[in-house]
Design a protein that fits this description.
alpha/beta, Rossmann fold, nine-stranded mixed beta sheet, 9 helices
C-alpha cells in the first residue's frame, strides 16, 4: 500500500472513535447525524438507471447521488475524476459491477484496501447496507475526506480505518470479503488480503487488461497464502468500457503465521516474483 501517515491527528469532526486493540490506530467514525439531516439530492436519470441495473432502491440512488455531489464539491477529494458524468461511470458503475458476484451481494464484513476516495468501498456500503464496511486507508488526509463522505451520503455501516493492511491487527481473520481497486500487482494485493479473510471468504481485485506475468505471479502467491486462484472474470461496468476484469481468489486454507509481513515487504519482495 502507499505510505501514509497513521499518526495524523484526529480531525475535529471525528470525535467519536471506535475501540481498537492497538490504541495508536484511529478508526474514524462519521459524526453523529444532525437532528434534521438535509434530504438527499434528487438522483439523475443516469443514477436511477445504474441503480435499476443492480436492483437498488430509491434511497440508495439518493445516497449515490450525494456521493457524486461530494466529489464534485470538495476540492480536497483525493481523485482527479470529480466531474459527475465521468465519476458516475469510472467510480460508481465500476465499483458496483462487483454486485454481479453473489459473494459480494451476501458479504457481511467487507474491507476496502487502500480506499483512497472511497471506491469501491463506499458504493458497496450503500448497495449492501447489511454489511459492515471498513475503508482501510493509511493516509490521514484521505481519511478525513472519507469520514466526511460517509456522513454526507449517510452510509452508517461504513467506518474509516486509518492504518495499513499489513498492520491492521483488528482486521485479522475478520472479513468475508476484501476488495481492492488500482492498488498493487495481484500478488501484492493477495498478500495484503489473505490474513484479513475468514476461511471461505474471497478477495475481489479490480484489474484492467490481462497481464500473463501478473497472472502467473498472482497464482503462485495464492498457493502460498491459502487462496485458490481462478481466471479473471470479464466485466463491462458501463458502455464502452474495455479490458475490465474482476479477479476472485477464494480462501481455502489457513494463511501461514508468517503473514502479514512487515509494512512494505510485500512490494519489495513480492511472492511469486521470478
Amino acid at each position: 500500500m502507499p505510505p501514509g501517515s497513521c499518526s495524523t491527528p484526529v480531525p475535529p469532526f471525528a470525535a467519536e472513535l471506535r475501540s481498537d486493540p492497538r490504541p495508536e490506530v484511529a478508526i474514524f467514525a462519521s459524526p453523529a447525524p444532525a437532528p434534521a439531516p438535509a434530504p438527499a439530492p434528487t438522483p439523475t436519470p443516469a443514477v436511477v438507471d445504474l441503480c435499476a441495473r443492480h436492483h437498488l432502491g430509491a434511497d440508495q440512488a439518493g445516497q449515490l447521488q450525494a456521493l457524486l455531489a461530494v466529489l464534485a464539491g470538495d476540492r480536497n477529494a483525493p481523485t482527479p475524476l470529480r466531474d459527475p458524468r465521468r465519476a458516475l461511470d469510472d467510480h460508481l458503475a465500476d465499483s458496483l459491477v462487483a454486485l454481479d458476484l453473489a459473494s459480494v451481494r451476501r458479504a457481511r464484513a467487507i474491507a476496502d484496501l487502500g480506499s483512497g476516495a472511497g471506491f469501491p468501498g463506499l458504493p458497496l456500503a450503500i448497495a449492501v447496507p447489511s454489511a459492515e464496511v471498513f475503508l482501510v486507508e493509511s493516509n490521514g488526509r484521505k481519511c478525513e475526506f472519507l469520514a466526511g463522505a460517509i456522513s454526507s451520503c449517510h452510509a452508517a455501516n461504513a467506518v474509516v480505518v486509518n492504518d495499513r493492511a499489513e498492520t491492521w491487527a483488528a482486521g485479522l481473520g475478520r472479513c468475508d470479503l476484501v476488495v481492492a481497486r488500482a492498488l498493487a500487482p495481484l500478488a501484492v494485493v493477495a498478500e495484503y488480503a489473505a490474513p484479513l479473510l475468514l476461511e471461505g471468504g474471497v478477495l475481489v481485485a479490480w484489474r484492467g487488461r490481462r497481464d500473463p506475468d501478473d497472472d502467473r505471479a498472482g497464482e503462485a502467491a495464492a498457493e502460498v497464502l491459502g487462496l485458490q486462484y481462478s481466471d479473471p472474470i470479464r466485466v463491462q461496468p458501463f458502455p464502452g468500457a474495455l479490458h475490465r476484469h474482476l479477479q476472485v481468489l477464494l480462501k481455502v486454507a489457513e494463511t501461514p503465521d508468517r503473514f502479514p509481513r512487515r509494512p512494505g515487504v510485500a512490494r519489495k519482495r513480492p511472492l511469486g516474483d521470478s
